[in-house]
Input
Amino acid sequence: MKKQSDSRILNVLKNIFNVRSWVDYDRMRAFTLYLGGGFKKMFIPQPVKKSNTESFKKAVAMQKLTESDILARQKGLYRLSIIMCVFAASIFGYSIYQMLYGSLRAMIVSHVLTLIALVLAFRYHFWYYQIKERKLGCTFREWYKHGLLGRKNE
Output
C-alpha cells in the first residue's frame, strides 16, 4: 500500500519549482566526485603496482619480427631522430630571424615548434637506443650516458 503524504497541490508545485533539476544537481555531484578523485590521484601517493616488465625477446616474439626487421626499424628510428634535430635547428634559426625582423608572436610559435621537434627527436632516439641495446625499459640516465654521450664503462 502506497503512503500518500503529499497533496496534489504540493506535487504540482514540486514539478513547477524543481530546483534540483534547475541546478542540475546530479551532474554537478558526479562532476565534483570526478574532480575530487582526480585531485586524490594527483596529490595523494598511490601504491605502485609492480607491472610485468616485458623483455626484448618477448616483444620480438610477440611482434613476430625478424633480425632484418629489427635492424630496419633501428636505422629508420635513427634517421628520424636526425631529421627531427635538423628540423628543430632550422626552425630555431627561423625563430632567431623572427626575433630580429619579425614579430614576437611568430618567434614564440617557432620556439614551441622547435621544442616539439626536439621532443620527437628524443623519443625516436630513445627507441633507437632501446633497440640497439636490446633492452626495454631503459632509464633516462642510461640513455644519456651510453646512448647520447657514448660512455661505455660507467
Remarks:
- Residues 67-101 form the longest helix (35 residues).
- Helices lie at 8-16, 19-22, 25-43, 56-63, 67-101, 104-133, 140-148.
